Amino acid sequence: MRSSLVALPKSFLGFMPLYLAVEIVLGISVLNKCSGVYGILALFTGHPLDFMQWVAYLWSVFTLIVFVQGLYLIHKPNLLVFSQICVLYTVDTICTCFFTLWFTTQWFTLEDKVDLSSIAGDASSTASQANYNPIATGKLTARSIDISGQSASESYEYSITILITLVSLIFRFYFNFILASFVQELLHHPKYLVDRDDVEQDLKNKPIWKRLWAKSQKGCYKLCKNLLE
Amino acid sequence: MANPFSRWFLSERPPNCHVADLETSLDPHQTLLKVQKFRPTLSDWVHYLFLGSIMLFVFIANPASWILKILCYCLLGALIVIPATSQFFFNALPILTWLALYFTSSYFPADRRPPITVKVLPAVETILYGDNLSDILATSTNSFLDILAWLPYGLFHFGAPFVVAIILFIFGPPTVLQGYAFAFGYMNLFGVIMQNVFPAAPPWYKIIYGLQSANYGMHGSPGGLARIDKLLGISMYTTAFSNSSVIFGAFPSLHSGCSTMEALFFCYCFPKLKPLFITYVCWLWWSTMYLTHHYFVDLMAGSVLSYVIFQYTKYTHLPIVDTSLFCRWSYTSIEKYDVSKNDPLAADSNDIESVPLSNLELDFDLNMTDEPSVSPSIFDGSTSVSRSSETSITSLGVKRA
Description:
The structure holds two protein chains of two kinds.
Chain A (H helix, E strand, L loop, with lengths): L17 H16 L1 H6 L1 H4 L5 H23 L5 H34 L13 H6 L22 H35 L7 H8 L4 H21 L1
Chain B lengths: L3 H6 L18 H10 L4 H20 L4 H16 L1 H7 L3 H13 L14 H10 L3 H5 L5 H29 L4 H22 L5 H7 L15 H8 L3 H7 L11 H16 L4 H17 L5 H21 L70 H10 L5
């Protein structure tokens, strides 16, 4: 029996069983991936989206569908499904890192184009407020001198922004290891062994998308088996 | 007695079963006896000390007169000591603590409050979700969408917790309402603490003031709900949101947290209606962003908070639901979830197939599944293993060994 490449956690935060952790991980991921659906609604609202935003939102919707499967099967896990989830979660982690870098650049580039004039009086009516998008129009205003001291300083705002982003990424990586550990345990458990003949047999007379889906699960299973078992 | 209540709810009630009965005694001695016998666990200590410290803080920080505060706390104490009222008010302690803290929040002196962040939420939203989803959804507005957004945000949200509590009490298993009060109360309590510790401006602020610095002297805004006020010819939302207790409490969204918690409890008790409850949460999410009251990251914080607290409550407090039963009076017993017994990765000592291979001393290579599996033959030599375990070994491809 081969050992896995890295030492994976055997419980969540040192005390919680892996299956409960996976339920939490997938639940949080599914909630977050709903962002894709709301982003795509830009189609109907007329808000302009660039290419990377479209890619991010469509990818979110796809991963949402994959992760939802896991939530339904967590108490009766299926190795093929969880292998697919584990591989896609890993790919998604890499994509998230890339998107985070990309959109961070976008945000700070936009901030550099700050218009020093105040827009406080520009959006007095509610109707125009709702139609007004300072970011889309590049009219972010600079922070004025804070007399009262009740508002956060620029450095405080940046620090908190970076902290939240980093903490979310760190959790993301930890969640990925939890999922990998769960799949590793499934691989070691005879109850969840995959009989390939059965899988091949089941695929006959199925629609092509189902066959492709099953094929991708099988590919993910092989990959997980090679890396984790 | 053949009144409608008996016909509807007590028809399936098992004889001599009292799990669903309510306490009707008014004798405080019963409560005192319970307290004497009570042996708190570590989690009980954490629970009561935490709530007690918040209550003490509110007692000191609230600007109401001392006499009034003492009277309120005495009344609460009396309601907790009397068994008939205790079963509701004692279990509602997390909710009462949240409400006490929430209504005290507006009296915190501005010079002692943390600084208000204006850029953090739009920045984090853009970094994590590609854009400000609130901007995307509020780009175009019309009266139909205004009404559609107003229904869950301005109406259902305020009545839903009570409706959910009543339905859970009647149609859920006994004690599920205690779990709901615990989870709902803690979610809101943590939410209000976070809102006070991390004051952040909502999307309407960015629309009105851009990213200029904020101060506690500013009034809140009804955001898109101002259009509803205009449409209905009232000023209810403008007045309410202008004088909100937590004006810069965008993060986390308790609208999102509450709706998620309600949906999770309903999904738990009535799993067949899951799509309906999920749709409600999605509808409310859309409405909060459309009305420019929250960023998507606020909604996520609220929902994740709810989800984590619900998961904890589900596995530590909630009774197991039997979907074949009609209402609380149909239950004969209350069973809790056994986390270790139901672990799908746990080994069952009675079943040789479910012993994890990692626990066994194996000196053969299992990575041989490319070999076609061989069905056992009646001409094979005698073997001591059971048929089921032999099939399992065959599927592993290690039969040859």
